Amino acid sequence: MSAHQSEQVDRANARALRLLYDAEPVLVDVRPAIEVIPGMTKDTVLTSGPPLHWDAYTGGQRTAILGGVLHEGLASSTAEAERLLSREAVRVAGCHDFGAVGSLAGVTTASMPVLVVEDAGSGNRGYCTLFEGAAPARLNYGVYDASVQQNLEYLASVIGPALGAAVRLLDGGIPLRPIMARALRQGDELHSRNTAASALFLQEILPGLFDLGADLAREVVAYLTSGDYFFLRPSMAAAKAMADRMYGAEGSSVVTAMAFSCAEFGIRVAGLGPRWFRGPLPEVEHARFFPGHDLGDMEIMGGESLITEVCGLGAFAQAAAFTLQNYQGKPEVMVRRNLEMYRITAGEHEVFKIPFLEYRGTPAGIDVRKVVATGVTPALDVGIAGKGGGQIGAGSFRAPLQPFADACAALDQLN
Amino acid sequence: MSAHQSEQVDRANARALRLLYDAEPVLVDVRPAIEVIPGMTKDTVLTSGPPLHWDAYTGGQRTAILGGVLHEGLASSTAEAERLLSREAVRVAGCHDFGAVGSLAGVTTASMPVLVVEDAGSGNRGYCTLFEGAAPARLNYGVYDASVQQNLEYLASVIGPALGAAVRLLDGGIPLRPIMARALRQGDELHSRNTAASALFLQEILPGLFDLGADLAREVVAYLTSGDYFFLRPSMAAAKAMADRMYGAEGSSVVTAMAFSCAEFGIRVAGLGPRWFRGPLPEVEHARFFPGHDLGDMEIMGGESLITEVCGLGAFAQAAAFTLQNYQGKPEVMVRRNLEMYRITAGEHEVFKIPFLEYRGTPAGIDVRKVVATGVTPALDVGIAGKGGGQIGAGSFRAPLQPFADACAALDQLN
C-alpha cells in the first residue's frame, strides 16, 4: 500500500470512528424474532459465527441448534430435527446476516423474544435474545432439556412480553449509551461484567414496569436482578447497531464484527462489506474455571459477544473492571493488556472512558493494518462452556492473526 | 507506655477490630426521630461535631440550627428561635450523644424521619436523617428558606413514611453490609460516592415498594434515584452502629468517632469512652470547586460523615472509587493516599475490600498511637459547603494531629 493509499485508509477510518462515536443505540422494543427481524422465518435457526454447513456444527453448538428446532415445534424428536436440518427443510444461518448477535451458541429462533436496539441516527437495528437467567442449564451454553425448554417458554410468554410492554410505555424507549458510559464508571466492561449496567437498566425500565401491576412487575424485577448478567444482551445488541454504522465508511480498515462458531473465528471489515475473513479459534490467555473444572473440559461452541470488543468495550475496557481479575489476571496485567489494545486501534472512544486511565477513551476501532504490523491481536473477554454444556468458567482470550492478515491483503488488492 | 502495656493495647485493638468486622448493620425502620431516638425531645436540636455552647455556632451551622427550630414550629421567627436557644428553652446537643450522625451541619429535629440501622449482634442502633435530594438549597448545607422547609415537610409526610412502610414489609429489614461490600466493587467508597450503593439499595427495597401502590412507589423511586447520593445516609447510620461496637474493647487505642462542628474537630477512642478530644478544623489536601467557586468561598459548617472513615470506608477506600479523581487527585495519588492509611490503622477489614488492591481489605481501625508515631493523620472525603450555604465542591481533607496526640497521652495516663 502506497503512502497515498495509506492516508486514504486513515481518512476512511476517521469516518468510521466518527460513525461509531456518534451512535445512539436505544432499546425500542422486545418482540418475538419473527415479528421484527427482517427475513426471519419459522424454519430458520440463527446461530453464532461465520456460517457453516449444517454438517460442520458439532458439540454444544449442534445441540443448541437441534434444541432450537425442537423448541419451535418443527420436529418432535432430535432424530427428526437432524433429518430436517440435513435436507435443509430447516435453514441454519448466521446471526450477523440478520442484524442479530448471539451469545455463545447464539441460537435464535422465530418465537424467541429479542431485544430490538435501534441506532437513532442511522435507523440500524441490532437484535439479541434474552439472558436465560442464572440457571446452569441454558440453550446458549449448549444444553437443551425439559428445564431449558420450560425456561425458554417462560421468557417467551412472560418476561419478553412484559419487557416489551414496559419499554413501549416509556416514551422513546431506553437509551443504552448513557447506561453503558455510566457502567464503565461502576466497574463494568460490558462483556464479562454487566452488574452495574443491569442495575442501571432496572432503574430506567422501572417507571414502565409499575404500569404492569405489582405481581408482574415483581416477577420481571426478579428476572432482571438474577445473575447480574441481564445487560450483556442489550450491550451486544447495542454494539451490533453501533458497529454496523461503520460499513458506511468505504475503504476503512476498521473491524466491524468478530465472531466464532465451534470451528472457526471470523472478522468483517468496514471497507470489505459482509465478507467473513476466517481463521482458527481464539486461544486462552488467562482463565479461571469453576470448581471441579479445568482447561481440558473446555469446549468452544461459538460466540458473538465479541461485538462489544469491536466497539471498544469488553477486553478493550478491562481496566474499568478490576473485579474480573480472577478470570483475567491481576489488575496490573489487566491494565497492561488494556493499554496494549491502543496499539491496534484507530482511535479512542469519545463516550466510553476508563476512570483508572484518567478517563482516557477506550481503544476503539480495531485497525487490521495495525494488527498485522504489530502482531498484537484483539483480547477477548469470554465466558467458557464445558463439554456436555453449561458454563465452567471465564477468561481472556486472544483472536488468531490469520483473518486480520487476509483482510489486510484484501484491502491492499482493493487499493 | 511499656512494652507490656503496648501489647495489652494491641490485644484490646484486636478485640475492637473483631467487633468491627463482625458488625451486621440492618436498616430496620424509618421513623420520626422523636419516636425512635432515646432521649430525643420536641425541644432538642441535634447537630454535628463535639458539642459547643449555642453561642459558639456560627455561619451555616447556626443557620441550620435556627432552621431546625423553625421547622419544628417551636418559634415563628428567627429572632424568636435565637431567644429560645439563648435561654436554653431549646436544647442544642451533639448527634453522637444520641446514637445519631449528621451530614454537614447535621441538624436533626424531633419530626424529621431518620433511618434506623440496627447492628444484629449488639443491638446497637445508628440514626441518620434522610438525603434532602438533589436541590441545591438544603438544611444540611446551611440553608433554610421556604423551599427547604417544603422539602423537609415532603420528606416527613411522604418519603419517610413510605420508606418506613416498605422496610417494615421486608422481613428483617435490609442488611446494609452486603450492599456496602458490593458497592466497593462498583466504584463507590461510600462517603463521597454512593452511586452504586444507591442503586443496590433500590433493588433491595423494591419488593417492599410494590406493595405501596404504583403512584407512591414511583414517587419513592424518583426520590431514591435523584442525585446518586441517597445511600450516604444509610452508610453513615450503618457506620455509626458498627463503630459503636468498638467501645466494648476496653483499653483499645482505636478511634470510634471523628466529627467536626463549624469550630472544632474531635475524635473519640474505644478505650476512652464518650470523651471528645478536640482540635482545629481539618485542612484541604485536594479539592475541586463547582464552576464560579473557589477555596475562598468555602465555609466549614460541621460534618459527621467521617464515621465512614472510622470504619475503613471513604478516604480509606479511595482506590475503589477512581471516578472521584477530579475531587481528590489522579488515580495514582488516590492509590498512594489509600495505601498511606494502612500505616495508621490496626488492621485490614475482612469484609470491605478494594478490587484494585487485589481485594486487600480496607485499612480499618485508626490507631491513635500510629497516628502520633507517623505524623500521618486520617484522610477524609468530604463535601464542601459555601459561605451563604449550599454545596460548592468536594475534596480530600486531612484531620489535625492534636486530638490524636491528646488521646494518646490520655491512654498513657490510663495505663
UniProtKB/TrEMBL annotation, chains A, B:
Pfam families: AllG (PF06545). This is YahG/YlbE-like protein. It comes from Amycolatopsis viridis.
